[in-house]
Specification:
It is a single chain. The protein is an alpha+beta fold and about 180 residues long. It has helices spanning about 30-35, 85-90, 130-135, 170-180; strands spanning about 1-5, 10-15, 45-50, 55-65, 70-75, 85, 100-105, 110-115, 125, 140-150, 150-160. It has 2 domains: about 1-65, no CATH class; about 70-180, DNA-binding pseudobarrel domain (At1g16640 B3 domain). Strand 10 and strand 11 (about 150-160) form a beta hairpin.
């Protein structure tokens, strides 16, 4: 058990055996810290050791949040091996985005996606179908990618989309359905 002081001087008692907890079942005090700092999976929490009274170790907490430099939403379509990137996002970060993206996924892991660096039809390939395996998508799913610098992105799973008219207007599935309706 650790006693941690946050930047407001409030004490938090943290069970140090966090490995035995799934993210959704973390102890109340840890969940409180996550809410207090609005922490995401890839944000760092630094515990500065301040000493021990013989029974309890004492720490001061510093949360290091990753910056949000840009964001775009797209959809994950079943049975596809690539994802489409919003062309406005691709153009805005043209020359900055590398060909390999590290995307933080659940449980603190990350996967690498290949980015074609094409502003006219920007695509993500390589491991795109792996997202389907990790998150068990059923149907078309809306995703949000947040660019946090270098080649790193945070991924948020939004909703399932049943109406094709709600696909992003720049997405090929939206364009195809509107140019060649059934």
């Amino acid at each position: 058990m650790w006693v941690c002081l946050d930047e407001y001087g409030e004490e938090h008692y943290i069970d140090t055996d966090l490995a035995r907890y799934e993210r959704d079942f973390l102890p109340y005090s840890w969940k409180k810290l996550v809410r207090l700092y609005d922490l995401k999976d890839q944000d760092q929490v630094v515990f500065d050791y301040k000493g021990s009274n013989g029974t309890v170790n004492q720490f001061v907490i510093h949360a290091e949040k990753l910056p949000e430099l840009g964001k775009f939403t797209t959809i994950h379509v079943p049975d596809t091996n690539c994802g489409e990137v919003d062309p406005k996002f691709a153009t805005k970060f043209s020359g900055v985005l590398p060909s390999i993206w590290e995307v933080y996924v659940k449980n603190g892991k990350d996967i690498k996606l290949d980015y074609n660096q094409n502003c006219d039809h920007p695509l993500l390939r390589g491991n795109w179908s792996r997202l389907r395996e990790i998150y068990k998508f059923k149907g078309v799913t809306k995703l949000s990618f947040t660019y946090v610098g270098t080649n790193k992105f945070r991924l948020s799973i939004l909703d399932q989309i049943k109406d094709p008219n709600l696909y992003p207007e720049w997405h090929m599935d939206y364009i195809t359905r509107n140019i060649y309706p059934d």
